[in-house]
Design a protein that fits this description.
The chain is α/β, with parallel strands linked by helices and 311 residues long. It has two domains: 127 residues, NAD(P)-binding Rossmann-like Domain (Rossmann fold, 3-Layer(aba) Sandwich); 146 residues, Dihydrodipicolinate Reductase, domain 2. The strands form three sheets. Strands 9-10-11-8-12-13-14-15 form an eight-stranded mixed sheet. α2 packs parallel to α3. The protein is globular and about 65 Å long.
Length: 311
């Protein structure tokens, strides 16, 4: 199978494809300047000769290009988060199902050892508390509190709860600009689980923790230090360590921060596997639709409840 990137993706010194299946060959690109790769003159020329496309540089790509690729029945991997509306995602999802092609989107966090370790834990949460605060910097005020800060948290919470959302309540305050700098979200699920999510882009310091409370125990996930702590009420030490100190023997799992190339390799291998097995990608359009649906509902709530800076 020929595998051709759309826009620049592979640098000459990169080892990104070393561990990928030999059935896939990197042959060239469109609007790419990578030495040794054929440069197609048009996107249609690229589509004519190849079966799968990588989109990495979104500066010159849009919904129209992505739709065009899928309509030509080509598999496509979008390596970055793609700014698509719920309606656009639904359109692409339907097209991909009709064309029977794999479309993998940029949910990079799903391919880390840390995320997969959390996913594998036998957690049946009754209550979730999530705090994601970013230390204030002038450029941080331009971040979207939902799309740039809390999207991964929403994905993790929905992955662990595995239940439909019954209600969403969200409110935000604009301290620096007239958009939400600080927000609080309450999600109520059909299985009675409740998630309280707090986010800020003007905090005094960085904090990023998720706590899953369930009967007889709870898990604390520290995203900044890449560790998972388990607190079990059956353990006598639980009552002596309610401050979540690191002294709980055997209750802490630490994970090394992964190199970006390792994560990209995992993404590509997942993409190749889905094509070979004709299965759904681990970061499919449907997964993005589910998160986008929740994000849009939160945006609607914030618009109704938002309190802007006065004066």
């Amino acid at each position: 199978m020929n595998f051709l990137p759309f826009e620049k993706f592979i640098h000459p010194e990169s080892s990104l494809l070393e561990n990928n299946p030999a059935a896939f060959a990197l042959t060239g690109g469109f609007e790419t300047d990578v030495e040794g790769l054929h440069n197609c003159n048009t996107l249609n020329e690229l589509l004519y000769h190849n079966d799968a496309i990588i989109i990495n540089d979104l500066m010159h790509a849009s919904f129209n290009e992505l739709e065009h690729i899928i309509r030509h029945c080509k598999h496509v991997f979008v390596s970055q988060s793609f700014p698509l509306s719920e309606e656009q995602l639904l359109t692409l999802h339907k097209l991909a199902e009709e064309a029977q092609v794999v479309v993998q989107m940029g949910f990079q966090h799903r391919f880390t050892h840390f995320f997969n370790a959390i996913k594998s834990k036998n957690i049946v949460p009754r209550l979730i508390e999530n705090s994601h605060f970013i230390k204030y910097k002038r450029r941080s005020t331009h971040l979207s509190i939902i799309s740039d800060v809390l999207l991964e948290d929403l994905d993790l919470i929905m992955t662990k709860v595995r239940s439909d959302i019954r209600s969403i309540n969200a409110t935000g305050v604009g301290v620096i600009y007239k958009d939400p700098d600080i927000i609080n979200i309450r999600l109520e699920f059909q299985n009675a689980c409740i998630a309280n999510i707090s986010g800020s882009k003007i905090a005094i310091k960085d904090i990023h923790k998720t706590r899953f409370y369930q009967n007889n125990s709870y898990y604390t996930v520290d995203h900044l230090n890449n560790n998972i702590k388990v607190f079990n009420s059956d353990d006598a030490s639980f009552w002596e360590n309610t401050d979540e100190s690191d002294g709980l023997s055997g209750s802490i799992e630490n994970f090394e921060k992964q190199d970006l190339n390792d994560i990209l390799n995992s993404e590509l291998n997942s993409f190749f596997k889905a094509i070979n097995l004709k299965s759904k990608s681990e970061a499919s359009l449907y997964d993005h639709l589910a998160i986008k649906f929740v994000a849009e509902k939160i945006y609607d709530q914030l618009e109704r409840n938002f309190v802007a800076k006065c004066g």
